[in-house]
Design goal:
This protein is mainly alpha-helical. The protein is about 60% helix and about 5% strand. The chain has one domain: Up-down Bundle (Hypothetical Protein Ta1238, Chain: A).
Length: about 190
């Protein structure tokens, strides 16, 4: 590894993959900053998992894919075909498969839940919130310079996966979910049935 500091960003500009420089608060950089934070959150989640936990492999896989996604987000669309990193084709379906497998372990509660419970569940919820923010930033960038849709689908499904993982963690630990409010469609159905 070369020098960590280059001093080239001291005036508020940073480089893009494929060349060119933009302001550090450019939508592309904002989106990548949120993806980087999400990747760090997944790293924290991994520290709370046992070394042999099956989720350890999933989270490592997700972290590697996020690095590839970040390289594509950092690349303007006109230069994207030169990016040597694979796109996350099929990762939305991979997340769906994991969600479906995990949901088989959960009980549908029909309520909005308060984030928290165990340290692992709380970190998974925090990662979910960062994923949602990253998704919003990606859509902002997508309107300015279209992104591959597989990236947008992946980050959306990833936030869903993290939510389900947090619920499963609570159930595995026998920790009750703290309910906030029943889903409106459940309340309406219950009221209609009464």
């Amino acid at each position: 590894m070369g020098k960590v500091y280059t001093r080239s960003g001291d005036r508020g500009m940073t480089g893009l993959h494929g060349g060119g420089r933009v302001a550090k608060d450019d939508p592309r950089i904002e989106a990548n900053g949120d993806l980087d934070e999400l990747n760090c959150r997944l790293g924290v989640v991994r520290t709370l998992l046992g070394r042999d936990d099956a989720w350890q492999g999933w989270c490592a896989e997700l972290q590697r894919v996020l690095m590839e996604v970040m390289s594509h987000v950092a690349t303007p669309s006109a230069l994207r075909e030169r990016n040597p990193n694979p796109l996350p084709e099929g990762m939305d379906r991979r997340c769906e498969e994991l969600i479906d497998a995990l949901q088989a372990e959960t009980v549908d509660n029909g309520w909005f839940v308060l984030p928290g419970g165990t340290p692992l569940a709380a970190q998974l919820q925090l990662a979910r919130a960062v994923a949602r923010r990253a998704e919003r930033r990606l859509w902002t960038l997508h309107r300015l310079d279209p992104l591959p849709e597989c990236i947008l689908r992946f980050v959306n499904r990833l936030s869903d996966l993290l939510f389900v993982m947090a619920r499963v963690e609570l159930q595995r630990q026998g920790w009750p979910e703290e309910r906030w409010r029943e889903f409106s469609y459940k309340r309406k159905k219950r009221n209609d049935d009464e």
